[in-house]
Amino acid sequence: MFRTALLAFVTALLFGLTPDTAEAHAIIIASSPAPKAVVPGPDVAVKLDFNSRIDKPRSIIELIGPDATSQHLPISDTSDAGTLATEAKGLAPGAWRLRWQVLSVDGHITRGDIPFTVAPAP
Fold this sequence. Notes:
The chain is mainly beta.
């Protein structure tokens, strides 16, 4: 009886410590522009790479300007299931922010902000 209980306990412990990929969230592994980057304008290519596949039709990229106005950016159709891409056009110099929200294919929503600066023309 003790041996059976001990075996059940050890099995449950090991099962609880194994990684559960079904509960993983989509996390950014690379972005362009990078956080806090200074980039030339007025047009800025945007690319967000995630560690897992995402549901693109339910994902959002919003651009927030120096004056706190915001606009949704259309997401390009890319072949990579873990990448969102778009282009922000006509940006004035100043501090900008990309606000993103994605739905990973496992059903979890993640979101975040990427601040960047558009440099004044030389």
